[in-house]
Amino acid sequence: MCQGPARGRFHSRLFYVQAILVFIAISLIIPTRSVLANFAPVASFRNHEASKLVLLDDDELLDFISKRAFDYFWHEANPHNGLIPYCNAADSPCSVAVVGFGLTAIPVGIERGWISREEGYQRAVTTLSTLRSDSSLRENGFFYQLLDMDECSRFKMSKASSIDTTILIAGALFIGEFFSQTVIQDMAYDLYDAVNWQWMMNHGETLTKSWTPEAGFSKERWDSFDESLLMYILAMGSPTYPIPASTWHKIRRPVRENYIFAPEESLASYILPHIWLDLRGKEDFYANYWNNAEFAARYNRIYSMLKQNKSKSYTKDIWGLSECEGPKGYQVYGASASNYDGTFAPYATIGCIPFSSSASMQTIRGILRDHGDSIWGKYGFFSGFNLDRSWWSATYHGIGQGICLLMIENYRTGLIWKHIAHIPPIQRGLRYAEFRASKISEALTPAYTAEVEGKHPLWDF
User: Fold this and answer.
1) What's the angle, vertex CA 184, arms to CA 181 and CA 185, rounded to 5?
2) Nearest to 334 by CA among 345, 342, 322, 324
3) How far apart are CA 108 and CA 242, in angstroms?
4) Report field, pTM of the whole predicted structure over 0.85
């Protein structure tokens, strides 16, 4: 790989040149393929609302998408206890991670004028009161991943999940800061203080993924770069059960070409930490993670287009590989050979809008224009679609809706980031990870570039 910043810039420029050549090649191929493949004409609009959306300007369109995503959290929630379902299926249990997204969504709704401040306050109190009221919902502060929507009890054999608890706590801390010096903030810190991160380490060097009364701790650990970056910041910054700062350096950070990549190359892994962590212009020893997300989004986009170019159902500018509902159910999709089958997630493209605004908007409009009759509905974009199989999801998943709403809001106003900046434990966690100001345009720092020289994989087809 490269030795120091000069070689790092060379590889970065080389990647851009390769990317440009790929886009040129795809553009040149498109007319020939469209003639030879004898494509069926684009479906006419049956969803008249979707056809009108493409006529809106960017800000109006994003506002419309945001409102629909917000409606999921507001209207699908059980108003009596504040629990929110994993998806909109009639028998769906509550996902505590989705509740975390829902808590974060409330201030967005207030600031946008979709609900009153009093309505948002009361919903937050109801939700946090429910979560604090019954100790059977959690173990050592970690919540069971799924709860019964009405009984508010552990759903079947659900696991006490470290990442789902992380998302819930992040949402609680955010709304606590939004309603600072109120009972909401007190309840949020009570939930956070109860999380025993040291216990979830299970005598290891990294956090385990889950625990159940029946089987104990999972053998799987959060030991490689992914969405768990947020979890480690919260765990290191904990005022009650902090884990050692050295844990930050136990996470594997594999490099592809010129950025640190998540094992499954699912976009959600890159997006999630940035919902609650403002890492713009910051770096640790390893990377500028904001730039890293930009590089990962670009890789996902080029990978998607190259794969689609080989498909008889080729559609220009379709990208967004991430976990979603596909023809075989909800699973992880990504920009890697083992996780690709032609299924795309609209929320992933939208979630990347702070990192790739122009490309994201182009794809959003393209999907609405060409497939709006199949992919758009009551709460906005459905979970996923697969053009090769002419398959379209009819389901909304709370995680996807949350990523849409919150990353659009951060892109437009930075609302979540502004309040997170005033939460001491999160800022303490960032200090323990030794984040500092960054001026690099690359993803990898020169120090880490030198450390991983010659150890990086290439494109995974």
Assistant:
1) 50
2) 322
3) 30
4) yes
Q: Can you give the pLDDT at residue 15?
A: 45
Every domain of the chain and the residues it spans = 4-20+45-451
> What per-residue confidence (pLDDT) applies to 134?
86
Using the 8-state DSSP alphabet, how is residue 52 labeled?
H
Three-class SS state of 144: strand
In what helix (H) or strand (E) does residue 138 lie, and over which residues does it extend? strand 138-139
Please report the pLDDT score of residue 458 as a whole number.
67
273: helix, strand or coil: helix
Query: What DSSP string runs through 330-377?
Result: EE---SSGGG-SSEE-HHHHHHTTTT-HHHHHHHHHHHHHHHHHHHEE
Question: Residue by residue, what is the 3-state secondary structure of 169-201?
Answer: HHHHHHHHHHCCCCHHHHHHHHHHHCCCHHHHH
User: From residue 441, how far is each of 1, 15, 258, 278, 280 by CA, in Å?
Assistant: 17, 13, 11, 17, 11
Q: In angstroms, what CA-CA distances link 114 with 49, 63, 403?
A: 20, 11, 18
Sole residue written with tokens 């919540």 = 143
Q: Judge contact between 156 and 146, C-beta under 8 A.
A: yes
What are the per-10-residue average pLDDT scores of the chain (461 residues)? 34 44 40 28 52 94 98 98 97 98 98 98 98 92 98 97 98 98 98 98 98 98 98 98 98 94 97 98 98 98 90 82 97 96 97 98 95 95 96 98 98 98 98 98 97 76 60
Which residues are registered as beta bridge partners of 146? 95
d(CA 86, CA 397): 6
CATH architecture of the region 4-20+45-451: Alpha/alpha barrel (1.50)
